[in-house]
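Q: Could you fold this chain for me?
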Amino acid sequence: MIRNKIGAMQGRLLPKYEGQYQAHPVGYWQKEFKVAQKIGLDCIEFILDYKDAEQNPLLKVGGVEEILEVWNNTGVAVHTICADYFMEVPLHAKDENEAVQSKKILINLLQTSSELGITDIVIPCVDKSSLGNAEAVDRFADQIRTILPDAEEKNINLSLETDLAPQPFADLLSKLDSNCITVNYDIGNSASLGYNPVEELNAYGSRISDIHIKDRTLRGGPVVLGNGDADFKSFFKKLKEFNYLGPFIMQAYRDDEGIEIFKKQLEWVTPYFNFIK
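A: Sure. Below is the predicted structure, expressed as structure tokens.
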């Protein structure tokens, strides 16, 4: 039986970059792959931030070769990208210049992803980039439709993470009507919003292609796995029905250093990973 890939969100195994909770570690990102290799992880989900985007190997000249070199040297792969860039400058921004710039970034990411063999580009539509009203949803859908042919040609998923309730999210997926439009499911963020994981998976479980492992309290922030309101038992029991083959990306609570608390949480959640094998 094929085992799901287990990976880490970029930066979770290293000391914080410039004190940020989540960011691409400019200048020392390569070190994380060796740490991941040592603890037996399969992959790293690369981050593209708005800040210092031009220094990110996903966009800069020669960056693909840099990533492939580290990948080949450690055996730790890059299958997915978390495009946090779009949290700062959403694809559905009201400012036309910002929307055009974000579209260009996504087109560039699709090219890089094709060269690396990336399966998913996660597009966060939460917080500043929330799809909180019908107008925002329509602008987002219009932008995505213009990019879909490129994603479909390259066979790369645009994996959406939203704060929409289950049925409105399912409606958005139907509106976009493409096999390349999939779901990034974040169990912690859903718990914080008060959503029921069984209802969510009933609405779009077959469309999930990337899962972020996290725990949060209701309407609160991240906590150590098992200490929040995420219903891991119900989620994994329901997930098993869908023969999910995508990665599990550890985006769990972190401290200033990263590695020890990561390992403790990985140990805690591993029985759930084994449950769906």
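A (continued): The chain has a mean pLDDT of 96.
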